[in-house]
Amino acid sequence: MEKGSLDQAQTHFEEALRIEPSNAEYHSGYAFVLEQLGRDEQAAAECEAAIRLAPRSAQAYYSYGAFLEKHGKPEEAAAHYREALQMDPRLVDAHIDLGSLLFEKGDLPEAKDHFQKASNLNPKLAQPHNYLGKVFMRQGDVIQAVLQFKEALRLHPDFPEAKENLRIAKESGAEFR
């Protein structure tokens, strides 16, 4: 987003919040704009306000989790993703992002479970298949990894990471790093 558009969005959200200060979605949207403007402390406060105003909102927890992950707080992010999934187990992005954090941490079984759930919830998404391929590579199952990378590319032919992962998988029987 361009600076002028962000400034305009900020103005709109501030006006909307003046009119309806208890709208959690407005706080979440405002948090996104503030983050884009580099005002991270204010953005975090707006994420917290959204959760306070809508404590059963899976999307509010997910959004704050994404914010925390982006700002180098993976454990806190994972906790927020888990909260979001308790409220809405069909939240595909939360499964993918939690799975990614778990993969990075080395918890392959739980990461795999979240990627499979994401894939089952939205079979047209390529990203979960790419991640599943990475899990299979780490587990030493190159055949399954290749199948997952191929499925990711079938769903999204211009997916550079999946192309590279498939190339590596075909060249190697070694553990994926």
Write the layout of secondary structure elements.
Layout: H1 3-19, H2 24-36, H3 40-53, H4 58-70, H5 74-87, H6 92-105, H7 108-121, H8 127-138, H9 142-155, H10 160-171
Helix pairs in contact: 1-2, 2-3, 2-4, 3-4, 4-5, 5-6, 6-7, 6-8, 7-8, 8-9, 8-10, 9-10
How would you describe the overall organization of this protein?
The protein is mainly alpha-helical and about 180 residues long. The protein has ten helices and no strands. The protein has helices at about 5-20, 25-35, 40-55, 60-70, 75-85, 90-105, 110-120, 125-140, 140-155, 160-170. The two termini are about 35 Å apart. The relative contact order is 0.07.
On the 0 to 100 scale, the average pLDDT is 95
| Form type | elongated
Based on secondary structure, the structural category is mainly alpha
Low-pLDDT parts are none
Binned strand content: under 5%
What's the story with the biggest beta sheet? none
Q: Please compute the radius of gyration using only Cα atoms.
A: 19 Å
Helical stretch tally: 10
| Structure summary, number of beta strands | 0
The helix content, as a percent range, equals over 70%
Distance separating the two termini:
34 Å
The H-and-E topology, N to C, reads as HHHHHHHHHH
